[in-house]
Amino acid sequence: MTEVWVTIAVLTVTTALTRASGPALLGGRDLPRQATNVIVLLAPALLAALVVVQTLSAPAGSELDVDERVLGVGAAGLVLWRGGSALTCVGVAAAVTAVTRALL
User: Fold this and answer.
1) How far apart are CA 8 and CA 26, in angstroms?
2) φ, ψ at 57 (rounded to 5°)
3) For the chain, which residues score pLDDT lower than 70?
4) How far apart, in whole angstroms, are the C-alpha atoms of residue 92 and residue 78?
5) Phi, psi dihedrals of residue 64, rounded to the nearest 5°
6) Of 81, 99, 80, which Cα lies nearest the Cα of 90?
7) CB 75, CB 92: distance < 8 Å
8) SS3 labels along 48-103
9) 1 Cβ contact partners less than 8 Å away, ≥ 6 residues apart
10) Can you give the pTM of this predicted structure?
């Protein structure tokens, strides 16, 4: 096996063990309220971090790149704030980004 396949196998086993450790260690018990409150906030925080990284990352990697994508994300945030659906949010973000790129 090549190094790539060994890495894939190790990561597969590690992922399976990590996912199985929660139910095995907790055994049907409920988590403490504080832990549940933190876990509930992890998904939105991770999503926000991914959006920021994808929006501001430069193709080279190490610099911030403020371009048309920032306006698209801003427009999407405005649509979500006004109560729009996720599909509308994506459509508005794509349209604003495309129009801004066409104009600049």
Assistant:
1) 28
2) -80, 140
3) 1, 61
4) 10
5) -80, 140
6) 80
7) yes
8) HHHHHHHHHECCCCCCECCCHHHHHHHHHHHHHHCCCCHHHHHHHHHHHHHHHHHH
9) 9
10) 0.61
Residues in the chain: 104
- Return the structure tokens found at 49: 């971090």
Consecutive H or E run containing 12: helix 3-26
Query: For residue 71, which of 93, 49, 47, 102 has the smallest C-alpha distance?
Result: 93
Pairwise CA distance, residues 65 & 70, whole Å = 9
How large is the angle between the packed helices 68-81 and 86-103, nearest 10 degrees? Answer: 150
Structure tokens, 91: 């459509």
How much is the pLDDT for 61? 66
